[in-house]
Design goal:
The protein is mostly helical and 189 residues long. It has helices at 3-8, 14-22, 28-31, 36-53, 56-64, 72-86, 94-107, 114-126, 135-153, 162-168, 170-188. Helix 5 packs antiparallel against helix 11. It starts with a helix and ends with a helix.
Length: 189
């Protein structure tokens, strides 16, 4: 759930950014009925994910997650958003950027599919995107993901436990992020 990365990788258009950030919460069958710019963001999200899924450095990060292979994609996404937050280089702070993004999502909530709108309200209310910079914040986000998985599948998972691997392999994950991020930026530029 690299939501912050998807926001940063979006062009300078609010509705495209909203579509890119929220695409994981929009069913493919709903995509055809989206506002055209929201659909551009949805499609951009799919292209970013496809590029990321084929990258060897990202695969290297996945391999570090022994015991978590089934959830390696979302875990690496969250870990990379952690590093993105720590290495933030935009003109405004990460917190200000996130608040602007939330305002954009609220501004366009009327054009979002119902389920996506409900999830985005929880995202904003619980301030999901401001918590990536600390281990406490990561634990909170991973616990939230655990609840969604359990609710959706009935399966109990311990994603918070993956933070122990992040702590032990921190330098390796950080190097992976630093190697991958410039490629991802140039992929969409």
């Amino acid at each position: 759930m690299n939501l912050l990365a998807h926001a940063v990788l979006s062009p300078d258009d609010e509705l495209i950014r909203v579509g890119n950030v929220l695409a994981d919460f929009i069913h493919r069958r709903e995509a055809a009925d989206l506002d055209p710019l929201l659909k551009v963001g949805f499609d951009l999200h799919q292209r970013i994910d496809a590029f990321t899924d084929k990258d060897a450095t990202v695969a290297q990060s996945h391999s570090r997650l022994v015991g978590y292979r089934r959830y390696a994609n979302p875990l690496v996404d969250v870990f990379y958003d952690h590093f993105l937050t720590l290495k933030w280089s935009k003109e405004i702070s990460a917190r200000e950027y996130v608040q602007e993004l939330y305002r954009s999502i609220e501004r366009y909530s009327s054009v979002l599919p119902e389920n996506c709108r409900r999830i985005s309200e929880r995202m904003i209310g619980d301030d999901w995107l401001s918590d990536y910079g600390t281990f406490e914040g990561l634990a909170k986000n991973l616990a939230r993901m655990e609840r969604r998985i359990q609710w959706g599948s009935g399966r109990e998972v311990d994603l918070v436990g993956s933070l122990e691997i992040l702590k032990v392999e921190y330098e390796g994950f950080e190097e992976d992020f630093e190697e991958f991020w410039p490629r991802l930026l140039s992929f969409e530029s």
